[in-house]
User: What shape does this take?
Amino acid sequence: MRRLTMILMASSWICAALLWGGIVFAADTVADEPKHPTGTQQVVHGAYLARVGNCMGCHTTKSGQPFAGGRRLSTSFGIFVTPNITPDKETGVGLWSEEDFWQALHQGKSRDGRLLYPAFPYTEYTKVTRQDANAIFAYLQSLPAVSQSNPPHDISFPYNFQPLLAIWRALYFKAGVYEPNQSQSEVWNRGAYLVQGLGHCNACHSTRNVLGASQDDALTGGQIMGMNWYAPSLSSQLEAGVGDWAIEEIVALLKTGITKRAVASGPMATVIRQSLQYVSQEDIHAMAVYLKSLTENESGNAPGVSFSVMSGSLRKHLDLGGQLYEKYCQTCHGADGKGMPGIYPALAGNRSVTMKSPLNAIRSVLNGGYPATTTENPRPYGMPPFQQILRNEEAALVVSYIRNAWGNRGSLVTAVDVDRSKGGEY
Amino acid sequence: MMRCFILLVFFYITGVANAHGGTPVKVPDTMAERVKACIICHGAEDKVGRDAYYPRIAGKPQGYLFNQLRDFRDARRYYQPMATLLENMTDEYLLEIAQYFSALQLPYPAPEQIHMQPEEIKLAERLIYSGKPEKDIPACSACHGDILMGVEPAIPGLLGLSRAYITAQLGGWRNGGIMRGQAANCMSEIAQQLTDEEANAIAKWLASQSVSGKPSPFNVLSSELAHRCSQTILENGGEK
Assistant: This one.
C-alpha cells in the first residue's frame, strides 16, 4: 500500500514536472525509441516553431492524426497530397536524418534527392536558420509515429514532369537563410525573419504567375492558389496595409482574430486559430513591427482619385441593395454601417469591403462565418450564411450597396461575380 | 473672427457626424445573440430556403447536437455551409451551443399534410414500432424512444422534421454520405436494409405526426441495441 502511494506520488510529481516544462504528455504509443529524448529544450522550441510555421495546418486532415498528412491541396496544377511527417519508418520520416530535413526545408529536395513541388513552401522556409530547422526536426522526431500512407499527388501533365521543376527552380527559387538588414532594428529583423520565412505569409499574400511562382516577397496580395479567397496586399494602405495602425492593434488582430476595426475571416481566421494565437508576445510584436513598416510611409487615406457623382439610375440600383441591407444586415452592422467594434465589424470605411477585389466581401455575405475562436476571444459572435436565403442577384445588390454606402466607393458587383465566388473551402 | 470661423467649422463637422450617426447597434452578451448565424435556417419560424429541409434543432438531446456540430466541423458529416461556419470553433464553444439549443423551447412546426394509403400507413407503423427482424431492422422506437422524441444524451428525435429532411438523411446513411470515411455505423446498416418504398413510407409517416414530449432518459435502450450502436452512444456528447 505504501509502495503504491509512493508510486502515485512519484508519478504525479513527474506529471507536474512535465506540465511545468510546458510539454504535452503524449501517450506512450511510440513503437520505436525516439531519436531525440523528449523534453529537451530543443524539442520544446521545435514544437513552438512548428506552431509558428503552422506545419499541422497542411500536414493534418480534419479529424486526422496530427502530422500524419493526407490533406489534399487543390491547385491549378493538380491535387497535392501532404505527406506524413511523423517518425514512422515506413510511411513517415522515421528514417530521415537532420541533414535530410534540412535539404527539404532549405533546398526543397526530398531524402531521395527528388525535387519537391513548391506547394511545400520551401521558397519561404529556405530562410529558416539551420538551428531552427534542427529544432523542428527534433520535435517532429519526438512525436508518436503514425503509420499512415497517403495517396500520391494527382498532378496534371506537364507539371508532373520532374525536369520542368528543375527549370522552375532555376527561374524562381533561390536557397538562402534570411540575412538581417543592418539598417533596421533587431526587432524588425526578427519580424521579417518570421514573416518571410517560417510564417510563409507570402504563400498566400502574393500574386502568383501562371507557373505558380510568387512575384516577389513584398506581400502585395493575390488570389490564393486553389482557394476562392483573395489574400489582401499587406503593402498597400488600400487593402490590408497596417502602416497607420498602432503596434498593439496589429498584435491584437494577429493574436485574437478581431479588433475594433478589423476581423480576420476565411483562411486567415484559420491561420490565427491554428498558429498565430500561440506565437509569443515578443515574436508577434516583432512581426507587427515588420508588417507596419511595409506601409509606414504611405498615406492612410484613399487615393487621390475623385469619384464622379452617381447618376440617378445608379442610385436607384443601389437603393435596392439598401433595402436588402435594411432587412438582413442592419441589426448587426447598423444603419450607419459602423457595426459594433470588436463584435460586428464596421462596413463603413472597411477596406475588405471596398478593396478592388470584391471576392472576400461576396464570400462573407454568402458563407457568413465566425471569427477565429481564440484564447482571447473564446465565444465570438457570427455572421449568417446568406446564400441559404439570398439569390445571386440579391447578394450582388447588397454587396454593391455596402461598397458604395457611407462614403465607401467600390465597383459594382454582378450576379455572375457572385456565382463565381461560390465553392471552395472556408 | 478667425475663432468664430473655426467654431463654425467645428459645429458643422460634429453636426454632420451626428446626423450620420444613426442608432448605435446594441449587442447583448447572450448565447441567443451569438447563435444568430444559426437561426436564419434553424429559427423559430418554419424557414423554407432553397435547401428546404433545415431540421429543427431546438430541444434535441444535447449530446446528439454536440456530436453533429463536431462531425460537421471535422468533416465526418458532410455539409459545406455548416463546415464553413464551424471551421474555427473549439469543442468548448460547440458544447455551449449544443447546450443552448438543447434547452431551447420553440413551438414545433405544424405536421405536414401528406396523403398516405392505409397499407402505406400500416407498413410505416410496423417498421417504426416493430421493425423487421428477418432483415435485422430494429424498430425505430427501440432506439429513438417510445414517443420517437429521441433518447438522452445522443440519439435524436424523429418528429418535427420535414419529409424531405428525413428522406435525405436516410439516403445519406444508405449511401455513406453522412459519416464519410467512418467505420460502420448502425444507422448505415439499417438504412441499407430498407427498400425505397419502406424509406418513403417512414419519412411520410414521421413528417405527418404532431410533436409532443421530450427525449427519453438514457436507460431505455436494450443492451443489444446499445451494443450495436455503441459508436453513437459512446460519443456521449459531454465527455471528450
Notes: The two ends of chain B are 73 Å apart (CA to CA). Residues 33-234 of chain B form a domain with the Cytochrome Bc1 Complex; Chain D, domain 2 fold (CATH 1.10.760.10). Chain B touches chain A through 38 residues (CB under 8 Å).
